[in-house]
Amino acid sequence: MKIFGKNHLIISAITFVILFLMNYIGSHESDKLERALMTAGAGVIGLSIGLFILNKGKNDKTPQNFD
Q1: What is the pLDDT, as a whole number, of residue 67?
Q2: Cα–Cα distance, 32 to 36 (Å, whole number)
Q3: Distance, CA of 3 to chain centre
Q4: Considering the domain boundaries, does residue 53 fall inside one?
Q5: Which domain holds residue 32?
Q6: Would 42 be classed as within a structural domain?
Q7: How far is CA 13 from CA 24, 31, 33, 45, 46, in A?
Q8: Is 27 inside a domain boundary?
Q9: Residue 65, in any domain of the structure
Q10: pLDDT of residue 38
Q11: Which of 17, 48, 57, 58 is found 20 to 30 A from 27 (Cα to Cα)?
Q12: Do 40 and 23 form a contact (C-beta atoms < 8 A)?
């Protein structure tokens, strides 16, 4: 999956919405909006970093008899 491509943006939006709603609905604190936004943003950033690392090693050529 290409970083910041169409599929990445769709998955990031779905991840943001799910994490935001889980934290916003489940929290009874007075600052639940700020916490939900920070958690959802951190989730999307973590997803992007993970996909970057995954795509970085995708075209890696390992030798035939590695072990």
Answers
A1: 62
A2: 6
A3: 11
A4: yes
A5: 6-58
A6: yes
A7: 16, 22, 17, 11, 13
A8: yes
A9: no
A10: 96
A11: 48
A12: yes
Tens of pLDDT, residues 7-62: 889 999 999 999 999 999 998 889 999 999 999 999 999 999 998 888 877 776 77
Asked if residue 1 has pLDDT above 70, the reply is no
Helix 6-26 vs helix 32-56: angle between axes, to the nearest 10 degrees?
150
State which amino acid sits at residue 67.
D
Tell whether the model's pLDDT for residue 65 goes beyond 90.
Answer: no
The token duo for 65 is 């008899």
Helix, strand, coil shares, percent, the chain, to 5: 70, 0, 30
Report the number of distinct structural domains present in the chain.
1
Could you give the CA distance from residue 23 to residue 28 in angstroms, rounded to a whole number? 10
What pLDDT is recorded for position 43?
Answer: 96
The token duo for 4 is 């910041």
